[in-house]
Amino acid sequence: MSTIYDAIVIGSGHNGLTCACYLAKAGHKVLVLERRDTIGGAVCTETMFQSDMYPQGFKMDVGSSAHFMIHQTPVIQDLELEKYGLEYIEMDPFMSFPVPNEKKVIHFYRDIEKTIDSIAQVSVKDAVSYREFITFWARINQGVLKTFLVPPTAGNVFTEMFKGQIRDGSMFDKSEPTTSGLRRIFASYGQVVSEYFENENVRTALNWMAAQSGPPPDQTATGDFVGWQAMLHQSGGKRPKGGSGMLTQAMAKMLEAHGGEILADKPVDKILINNGKACGVKSADGDEYRSRVVVSNAHVQTTMLKMVGPDHLDPKMLHRVKHINVGNGFGMVIRCAVKQLPEYTSAPGDSEIHNGLQLLCPDMNYMNRAIGDYMQGNPPEKPAVVAMTFTKIDPTLAPEGTHTLFAWAQWHPYELQNGLKWDDIREAEAQKIYDVVTDYAPNMKGQLIDWYIQTPLDIERKHGLLRGNVMHVEMSFDQMFMFRPTPEMSAYKTPVENLYLSSASCHPGGGVFAAAGHNAAGVVLKDLKKRKWF
After folding, report:
1. Confidence class of residue 261 from pLDDT cuts 50, 70 and 90?
2. With a threshold of 0.85, does the pTM exceed it?
3. Is the previous residue joined to 487 through a cis bond, with omega within 30 degrees of 0?
4. Which CATH number goes with the domain that contains 494?
5. How many domains does the chain have?
6. Which of 181, 313, 401, 407 has its CA 20 to 30 A from that of 227?
């Protein structure tokens, strides 16, 4: 190939496209190579279940569905994605908890006062505590959010947190010792919830939402996984009209409008390295593409162990990359075409419950039993489920008179015990998840038209998310901030000169956030500017 690009980005996931778009916007010649025949990585929507009865099919997400974190970044505005077809629909309430065995639902609205009123129907005391909880964590997370949008260092993590003392008078309530506030930050999210709230339904709802990041409720230094609830009230939850993948489709259009190129069905086999410097890539079909820099949006282990290879890493670095904690799976999901929306026993006639996430986990004992099964290497006997019925707010997803139902469940180990294999048990485990929905909404029995099942193994196969971890690597404190994915690569640079990382393997982690791609672009742009100057 005669063309020499300024940057080649490996992978068209939303972080990779974010990075590519910023580089192209700055005037650089950018090429994105995607291994699948469709773009978007784990933010992708596909048409499924077409038939004579349903010729238009159903628009089914095959990865992330609800968009929360990206609305706390400047990415959508910076890239002017609305010009390229992106239209968001508000999810309000953004999550709801059907109270088991009662005709009540706790709705979590963007508006804090409405949320407090909803909590008050199950516990007046916890409604008061919720205001205190949100106030405390909102102060903390204004600083934390700033650290998420820059390359991490020990200095900026703690500096931004403590700037709150100047900006807001005090990061913590003046009525409590500073050490008390710090202890809360480094506590587990389960401990934080139990200290603030006494009602089992409120506790379960908040713990189950916090668990979407991966670690169990008793893991140290995860307090902010539940504390981030304060930020959800600021930005809300949203859903791209037409499916989650409309975000990456808009990014692709923006990139191409600025002269960038995308080649799908072009898996990268090798990163080309000359004299210790990345100078391009080689695809699986033998084509070579040259560039000044290479940015990998692939999993950090795939990038360093396969595309770079052990020969280009010193033994200590090789050892550290091999021993990054990828975890043992996370969850699985069923993507269902159905004839009706769930009619929850707890919420007769309540249509608002379908605006956002539906938290189907009866109590903490139920959650802990699922975690216990996972720790034993078994799928949960009764999985905790997040149901999503987006056809309520976006009818374009399904033929008239039908709906989509996505049901994400945890905890499901990638590596199974007792000789179990995912390809053998996937249908049975999918049925368990669907059965949880019918437990809450008996009308859903017999309403399934078809489904698309994604076990941890399926997730690995389709998206390259090793061991089925949708966050790439575990979101434990020792793998966050300046420790993610390793201290040496936390600033998006690798030991190979001109090779950068932009994926969820990097700070600040997974979810539809785009912060890793945003931050990586800043680092690459700065380096390209230096090289051009000299």
Report:
1. very high
2. yes
3. no
4. 3.50.50.60
5. 2
6. 407
Yes or no: say if 413 and 459 are a contact pair by the CB < 8 Å rule.
Answer: no
HEC letters along 95-128: EEEECCCCCCEEEECCCHHHHHHHHHCCCHHHHH
The residue from 235, 253, 278 where one domain ends is: 235
The pLDDT tens digits for 15-74 are: 999 999 999 999 999 999 999 999 999 999 999 999 999 999 999 999 999 999 999 999
* 59 strand-pairing partners: 47
Q: Residue 321 CB: number of other CB atoms within 10 A?
A: 22
Residues contacting 380, CB < 8 A, separation 6+: 369, 370, 373, 374, 409, 410, 411, 412, 432
pLDDT of residue 440: 98
CA angle 496, 474, 78 (to 5 degrees): 65
In a domain? residue 329: no
- 193 found inside a domain: yes
Token duo for residue 28:
């650089």
Terminal CA-to-CA distance of the chain, rounded, Å? 26
Largest CA distance in the chain: 70
d(CA 355, CA 408): 16
The Cα–Cα gap between 450 and 431 comes to: 12
Which residue range(s) make up the domain with 138? 113-235
Total count of residues recorded for the chain = 534
